[in-house]
Amino acid sequence: MISAISLNSVFTPEFIFTVIRVTTPILFGAMAAVICNKAGVINIALEGVMLTAALFGVFGSGYSQNLWVGALVGILGGVLISFLLAYFALYLKTDIILAGIALNLSTVGGTIFLMFALTGDKGATNSVQSLQFPRIDIPFIKDIPFIGAAFSGHSLITYLAILTVFLVFFLLYKTPFGLRIRAVGENPDAARSVGIDVSRVQLIALLISGVIASFGGMYMSMAYMNLFTNNMVAGRGYIAMAAAAMGQANPVGTTIAAFLFGTMEAFGYQLQSQGIPSQFINSIPYISVIIGLVLYSMYRQRLLKKKKELKLKGKGV
Amino acid sequence: MTKLLKMKTNSVDSRFEAIRFIVAIGVALLVALILIFMVSKEPFQALQYLFLGPISKFRKIGNIIETAIPLTYLGLSVSIMFAANQFNMGSSGALFLGGTTAAIIGLVLPLPFGIHPLVAILAAGVMGGLWTSIPAFLKLKFGASELVSSLMLNFVAFNICIFIIMNYFRDLNAGTLASTKFFETVLLSNLVPGTRISYGLIILVIMVILSWLFMSKTKWGYALRMTGLNVNFAKFSGISTAAVILYSQFLGGFLAGMGGASEMLSLYDRFKWQMMPSYAFDGVIVSVLGKQKPQYVPIAALLLAYIRVGADTMSINGDVSFEMISIIQGFIIILIAANAFLKKYRQKMVVKEATEND
Amino acid sequence: MEEIIRMENILKVYPNGIVANRNVNFSIVKGEIHALVGENGAGKSTLMKILFGIEQVTEGKIFLNNQEVVFNNPQEAIKHGIGMVHQHFMLVPSLTIAENIVLGDEPKSGIMMDINKAIKDTKEIAERYHFDIDPKMKVEDCSVGTKQKIEILKALFHGAQVLILDEPTAVLTPQETEELFKELQLLKEKGHTIVFISHKLNEVKEISNRITIMRAAKDVGTYQTEKVSKEDISNLMVGKEVLWDLNKSKAQPKETTVKVRNISLINEHQRELLSDVSFSIRKGEILGVVGVEGNGQRELVDVLTGLNEISLGKIEIENVDIKGFSIRKIRDLGLSHIPEDRMKLGIAERASIEDNLLSIYYDKKDFLKGPFLKAKQINEWSKAKVKEYLVKTGSEKTPVKMLSGGNIQKVVVAREFSNSPKVIIADQPTRGIDVGAAQFIHKKLIQLRDEGAAVLLVSADLTEVMDLSDSLIVFYNGKITAYFEDASKLNEHELGLYMLGIKHQSDEEVRRCMYD
Fold first, then answer.
1. Which chain B residues contact residue C375 at CB under 8 A?
2. Nearest CA to CA, how far is C93 from chain A (Å)?
């Protein structure tokens, strides 16, 4: 096993390519989570958003044979789930965590139901000719040794994911609405005191996150594969949430956390060739989330302890 | 006037809750209706299968009870954890782990008839409980959210179990993934001929009673409930909320593990699970329907089982797929837990009560 | 000078029946600094909340420049040029000063926020009012004094002509207070009008032109500041109602059971919330803790009951050092606690009365048979308690949130008093409850005292604490500044002077409360 994780195999362009590739859906989900966290709403339903968008995107592109129509339909599907979460949690006052869980449970079966109703397929959308996002070979970059193999040739949607990080950063830190999102999430009373409608800001934040997470779902069904299979998101929504928590909802920190999880997953694939059982490989993303969560919580606890010690220092204790 | 209003609102509240409950289920079924009409070529027949299918044959009625058994275990599991305000979602993983444990005991440990299944079920419960205690431990030691860690652990549990069965107990002659056959002594024998209901039902009834006793009649159950209702109050009164966090989640996993074992030993003669069973995630809805009270969980489980069997009948005989039930279940959860649902109506009820007697 | 605001005959009754303002008349003159003074609960905050649109009058009128106005929310008040700086800052810590000030009214350039304009506008307004701040600094990195400046600037940015400051110096250091006063003078010179809510008489005397004094929801008059002395103000502020006849027998205090020695509590901002406090509580005595809220009483209760830990010093209860003790361990020593926040700590509102009574007894041998609760016995016991404590309810199974405030408190008291406590910490025990319930609780406290309990009574209600206590200590700025061995010999005006920091005893006199 040590030989498998030798430096040689890690610092290859193929490995970096894999890392970027597998991080794509997590990155989308994490950015969606960042916006929600900043606005003070916990969006557990990312999993459901991604799954729904994955299915809708396949149907949209399959029936219209137009990729962009497909993307639009996929987004609509994802936003629908976000809207339901917003409506039930913000206006009907269902506990937002319970509502998120309910939506996730519904979409697992709901997508199968829809798939069967529209196509008669039960396990995968075999009968739908979905389109895929194209791969892009970046001119000039692709010819650079090492860098070209690692960074060029990804799916369009992967480059979109990287762009999304910048867009989210821009939204949150450069626009007035982003300022309001951050205010609402940190101190809703302060926001209210200047006349901001807190629920409305949170609703919009949830809808925007729905759009972003939808791309994460569509990556699974329209880039990674070219069809929809049952429960294909497989927990990536939750992993994305964990990345956002670890990154403290800061776009930069969250991106790093997301890539960390992607790296762990890529490691797993490396180990696969060494005869490590597939179940262990499959478990790596989930275990790394738990470890990440624990490390992060430990870090926070230590921070609080330091604060306590600081206050005693003032008295010369 | 204010005092009178307060006493009136008490009775209004309980009536209002009941009405809201019924309306929530009604809305969910309405959604089902709409879906069926949209999707089916013969909607009325589909509806007939959905609502009357479960009572059309004796075997179907047996199905209702069989289906309700694991649902009850899961409902109890989630109810105990949610009652302590712990959002541990690990019941499905514990169920799977419990089933696997029972299978292993059935494959590896020969024991006399009668004791064998009991030992298997007990072991399954312990394994399930230990597994769901991990998020509790992480929360107490590191402050990590039990929601995320328990969800992750579900995936891990699944992988561990499949790995063990595949690599140590696999029947190489079988076509799909399956273990070799269990010792016959571990199986739970049939209780009601004509159905698949086994003696596991009796064990379940005992567990329901024990859970109810635990929650309402013991000091641990009391401490658990108070912690769930107001953790500050519990701490203030000197209750060890850390202990509650730990044992509530252990017991939740224990019950889910038992549920998995019960299923494994009642329905199969070898390990055959290739995916998480579809009902594995239904603990939440049963718990929500049963208001987190062990005494209502069986009723909630039966209600849900009825709908499931109906949906199953409908999907076999008609053209509406079984998974429609996920959508209905989601709506039920979200509507029942919607605190502001029908809030205006409640206001009207309160005012009506108050003015009626003036 | 022209009148700018007039509030006429204001009556404010809250839904729970409490009258916060009764027949209040308040008038402000343009360009003055007008102090609004009164004890906690006197009604001054409510009056200003009404002016700022946070609350609405039950009856009464408001006139702005002789035109009648109604403010349904703060935005309307702001539009009319009224700004308010609250005690708890409404700022977003991770945003910069400029961002906080323009929040809600952000300058745009295309779809982006024009942060440079925001900084420019902030700098401009800061310079105009001689506020020395850096618009690019994050609020979380600012001192408390700076945060307050930001709040004032925010109000000015939104066009406030009249500024209401609610207890602005409560969180400031002396230097910061000086700076604030300089700024207020400048604002006044620029034509702004300031209403300054406070109970710190030194400051009120220093900065204000006129004072309005409120007491028990009424206004007790408006005066020219230079024409009234601090003693006069104190006398008008601090009044005592006539309490029902408690028929309190004289206390027979015995040995000390609680020893507090040199305790200090420092918060993360290096503020000393408790400063070298020492005293003792004796068995068979009610020791009252008097003081304007926010002078350390809260923190004292927290460290005695296990909700917080001291930074320095030692606390002994029944001769046991409670350092590191859990709440449970402290309770096992014989301590009972009536918490100030009854809804958050004292009860679980959705649980039944019976369950709420049980919370400190549920694992006691008497109520248990193995792990099982003796349901019948507990039920009879709770029925008896409901009867004994006159809790008005149909059944002991009713959820407590259905009860009135007074009855909820009686449930709390019934629980805390029923285990023959050796030490009782009663924190605002009769706040917000009806007279009947309050009377009942007072009688019970005296009864327990006579049975040998040591009672610490912390209350902002002067009437209650003076009539019920045997001895009194006064808290001011985290320190004990006075000790009175016999509360019955005290005059409330005298006490007011100590509460407001106008007078304080010598260290010798204060040390008597340790009974060493």
1. 217
2. 8
